[in-house]
Design brief:
Elements: E1 2-10, E2 15-22, H1 31-37
Antiparallel strand pairs: 1-2
Amino acid sequence: MGTIDFVTISNTHQYAEIGYVLSEDYWNKGFTTEATKKTD
């Protein structure tokens, strides 16, 4: 299916960069959106 991970986290500046790789079979099905929301 794929992966999602934090690439950069800055507590000082209060931001994070998320990287993801997703197999084309799973594009446009909301998986990346759902996974990103669960990182909150």
